[in-house]
């Protein structure tokens, strides 16, 4: 078993408790030699990962490289691993599908499992932040995809997480909605400053949003690029274009013959 310390997971599916002082107060995540096997197959093979408080990290990797597996371990949704894993603070998770409870209205989805003195007021504030105050009494099935994803973000943020884990939360959205939700996530992140780990297939999305972009390959963090540009960022920025080709090459995509 991995030594899992810290991490009070609140999210859509998991609840775990624990508390421990961090070895490094600046880090919300610290893993060393984190290894995960499914049967005889080693999917994560000694992952060393640090995420600082308030840092936005994106994780790229080919399909099946183990991105979601790593996210699930950080979320405490899977505990069967070896190595060191330390998560310091509260964790919230948002997935590709919003995973709203269909028989609960929007507001009740956000307050679900929420403790504290006034969960309704907290949920109302969170819904206002994602600009969905008017939808508070709607049933999830009557929401658009973008609205449902914003409710899912409100539900994640209402808990004021130290670590926000995002597993491809934008991939099912149409291009325009995706741009708006990107803007919203950056806004919410700037206001709340959780550490973020965003799992994505989209190199541009990673470069537009993150401070650091990691590539998972061969069960390890095989590459990282730091993106020093201020936000909002433009896709056509020269530095971004260069980083994009480096990352695509690391992902095994070559752009020869394309413009
Ligand atoms: N519960 C499980 N039992 C057995 N194998 C699993 C299980 N979960 C994941 N795997 C395997 O582990 C590998 C990594 O899966 P994972 O979902 O983490 O990859 P990923 O990088 O997130 O992929 P994608 O980008 O396609 O979502 C895959 O080969 C997958 O089949």
UniProtKB/TrEMBL annotation:
Keywords of this entry: ATP-binding, Cell membrane, Membrane, Nucleotide-binding, Translocase, Transport
Gene3D superfamilies hit by this protein: P-loop containing nucleotide triphosphate hydrolases
GO BP term, example: carbohydrate metabolic process
Signal peptide extent: none
PROSITE patterns listed in its UniProt record: ABC_TRANSPORTER_1, ABC_TRANSPORTER_2, GH18_1
One annotated GO molecular function: ATP binding
Domain ABC transporter: 29-243
Cross-referenced Pfam families: ABC_tran
Annotated InterPro entries: AAA+_ATPase, ABC_transporter-like_ATP-bd, ABC_transporter-like_CS, ABC_transporter_ATP-bind, Glyco_hydro_18_chit_AS, P-loop_NTPase
Name assigned to this protein: ABC transporter ATP-binding protein
Source organism: Actinomadura spongiicola
Lineage of the species this protein comes from: Bacteria, Bacillati, Actinomycetota, Actinomycetes, Streptosporangiales
């Amino acid at each position: 078993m991995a030594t899992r310390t810290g991490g009070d997971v609140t999210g859509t599916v998991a609840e775990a408790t624990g508390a421990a002082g961090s070895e490094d107060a600046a880090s919300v995540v610290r893993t060393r030699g984190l290894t995960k096997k499914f049967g005889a197959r080693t999917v994560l093979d000694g992952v060393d990962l640090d995420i600082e408080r308030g840092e936005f990290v994106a994780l790229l990797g080919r399909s099946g490289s183990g991105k979601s597996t790593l996210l699930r371990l950080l979320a405490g949704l899977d505990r069967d691993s070896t190595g060191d894993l330390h998560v310091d603070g509260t964790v919230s998770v948002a997935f590709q599908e919003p995973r709203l409870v269909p028989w609960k209205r929007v507001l009740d989805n956000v307050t679900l499992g929420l403790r504290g003195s006034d969960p309704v007021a907290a949920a109302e504030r969170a819904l206002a932040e994602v600009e969905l105050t008017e939808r508070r009494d709607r049933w999830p099935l009557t929401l658009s995809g973008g609205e449902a994803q914003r409710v899912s973000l409100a539900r994640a943020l209402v808990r004021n997480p130290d670590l926000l884990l995002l597993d491809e939360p934008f991939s099912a959205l149409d291009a325009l909605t995706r741009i708006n939700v990107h803007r919203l996530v950056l806004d919410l992140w700037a206001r709340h400053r959780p550490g973020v780990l965003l799992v994505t297939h989209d190199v541009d999305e990673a470069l537009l949003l993150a401070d650091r972009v990691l590539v998972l390959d061969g069960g390890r963090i095989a590459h990282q690029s730091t993106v020093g540009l201020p936000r909002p960022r433009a896709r056509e920025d020269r530095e971004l274009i260069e980083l994009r080709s480096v990352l695509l090459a690391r992902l095994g995509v070559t752009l020869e013959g394309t413009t």
